[in-house]
Task: structure prediction
Amino acid sequence: AAIIAPFKVTAMTIELKTPDDIEKMRAVGALAGQQLEMIEEFIKPGVSTGELDRICHAYTVDVQDAIPAPLNYRGFPKSICTSVNHVVCHGIPSDEKILKDGDIVNIDVTLIKDGFHGDTSKTFCVGKPSILAKRLVSNCKESLYRGIRAVKPGAHLGDIGYAIQTYVEKNRFSIVREYCGHGIGKIFHDDPQVLHYGNAKTGIELKPGMTFTIEPMINAGKPDVRLLRDDWTVVTKDHKLTAQWEHTILVTDSGYEVLTHRSDDTIERCG
Ligand code: MF3
Ligand code: CO
Ligand code: CO
Result:
């Protein structure tokens, strides 16, 4: 997630990817999705988030021949983000943080391959989650899918936020405002900012060749968040549960392509 710059005034010419760029975005996106599939079997009670980080790092470097983008990015110390229960995003993996039955954990993977980034995350349930946790996680995932389905040439950025917001708030969950999705390509966090709330037909018009992430952070309680003293970990102010789901998306001539699509996704890869 990128920190929202509320008064950002830029000429905002969004870079359109060439067919060659898109081929590379597809390749790195597929690797990022595969990494989330790979890590699933290790997510169980008793494992530390530090161990999950080591597994992902080794897989990235040794198997996928890619670079873990978070490592040393603006001083981030690890290769993935692991955000447990009330942690909204950018949780730092640690050997002290042991997952227990009933936890929910978001694993956020960003890879670089051939100079391009692929960024994706999902919230996993550890053991048997509460009914509330299950509802929250499935609401978050569905909200991402609704955002994705709003993507097509001629639609506006605000259509994505609108689709997410109406669905989430109808179900009485709340949306984190301080962090957003982002343009992505050779740059990890590029323009435009992709807000997870907003009004239809507002914001820039979507054009084929744009690539950006959509990554709603959905809270069970109030929307307010707080940054911890480590300057990375974002938590809910009320310490209630929060979930996140993220894909990297390409605007195509007819709609969208989910560049980080996985076999367990329940949205169609192209639409
Ligand atoms: N992958 C996160 C995102 O979705 C960003 C992580 S930046 C890091 O934008 F430095 F915390 F890794
Ligand atoms: Co992102
Ligand atoms: Co991410």
Remarks:
- DSSP finds four helices and 16 strands in the chain.
